[in-house]
Amino acid sequence: MALNQHSYCSYFALLFLFLAFAYSHSPFLSYEALKSGQFTGRSLLQAKKSCPVDMEGQNYTILTSKCKGPKYPAALCCEALLEFCCGFVDELNDMTNNCAETMFSYINLYGQYPPGLFANQCKEGKDGLSCDNALKAQAEKAQIKASSAASSLLTPRRLPSLALASTFILYLLL
């Protein structure tokens, strides 16, 4: 019985952390962040903080595989941009760092996109581009991966070791 209460408490704590994270960040990619990808020839002479996200190490394939020229379809390009950006939207919206500029320099390097493509094509509401759908899609993908990983743990070959590990953990708890 104590194990069931412990399990419920663990699930509740995980749910609480997930909800707290989901509501703690901005659900929109701001237009300011999008415009930082446009090179206007002028820049402010103010130093910005380094980006806390490793933009060089990101996988830009989601963009380059969906957003292709010469027509650059707006629906596909904007969907791919959101799928890529929404994981670190807070950092991109923070205009005190250079995340958005750095990201767009890599996007343009790998995709060879025309300057301002995303800022000109991707328009939504007054707050910017909504990340709600992109975040839901990422959560669904993560859930599918987790369920497939869990089912791979329960293969007949692994059941004895899983049972042994569970017994050992129960022994430690008691």
From TrEMBL:
This chain's source organism reads Cucumis sativus (Cucumber)
Query: Which keywords does the record carry?
Result: Signal
By its UniProt entry, which InterPro entries does this protein fall under?
A: LLG1-like, LORELEI-like
Signal sequence annotation:
1-24
Q: Which domain of life is it from?
A: Eukaryota
Under which name does UniProt file this protein? GPI-anchored protein LLG1-like domain-containing protein
All copies of domain GPI-anchored protein LLG1-like, residue ranges: 53-129
Organism phylogeny: Eukaryota, Viridiplantae, Streptophyta, Embryophyta, Tracheophyta
* Pfam name, any one: LLG1
